[in-house]
Amino acid sequence: MRKDVLIKGILVLVVIALLTIVFTGCFGIFFPTTGTVYISIANDNYWYDIYIDGVWWGETDGLGNLTLYNVPIGDCYFEAYDTSPWNLYGSKWQYIRYGSNTVTIWVY
């Protein structure tokens, strides 16, 4: 009888430990939640501020390219604002998945 209680207690502890791992910081190991995004400005070679869902993520290089890491998976709204007085702008909705994603934005 005592042996059964000990085995059940150990089993409960193992289940609790596994649930803790799954629902805390190690959750991303089993179910990735971010992707890498390669942004390019299609019709201009200049510096652009890049926003995702209204939040600034960085600035493209002089060729209009930017690599972003840890972008949340799901539908994202990308915006490119020209940093010069020309005030060019472009935007695009795109679904981001785990792994590599390429986002091409046209500016006008």
Q: Return the CATH architecture of the largest domain.
A: Sandwich
End-to-end gap: 77 Å
DSSP, total strands: 7
Q: Would you give the CATH topology of the largest domain? A: Immunoglobulin-like
Assign the structural class, choosing from mainly alpha, mainly beta, alpha/beta, alpha+beta, or little secondary structure.
alpha+beta
How much is the radius of gyration in Å?
A: 22 Å
Provide the β-strand percentage band: over 45%
Bulk shape = rod-shaped
Which superfamily, in CATH terms, is the homologous superfamily of the largest domain?
Answer: Immunoglobulins
**Main β-sheet description:** 4 strands, antiparallel
Task: Characterize the quaternary organization of these chains.
Answer: single chain
Strand order of the largest sheet: 3-2-5-6
Overall residue-averaged pLDDT value:
89
Fraction of residues in H or I helices? 10-25%
Number of domains: 2
What is the N-to-C succession of helices and strands?
Answer: HHEEEEEEE
Number of helices: 2
Level-1 CATH class name of the largest domain: Mainly Beta
Give an overview of the whole structure.
By secondary structure, the protein is an alpha+beta fold. The protein has two domains: 1-29; 32-105, Immunoglobulin-like (Sandwich), CATH 2.60.40.10. It has two helices and seven strands; from the N terminus they run ααβββββββ. The protein has a four-stranded antiparallel sheet, with no helix packed on it. A three-stranded mixed sheet has the order 4-1-7, with no helix packed on it. β2 and β3 form a beta hairpin. 16% of the residues are buried. The mean pLDDT is 89.
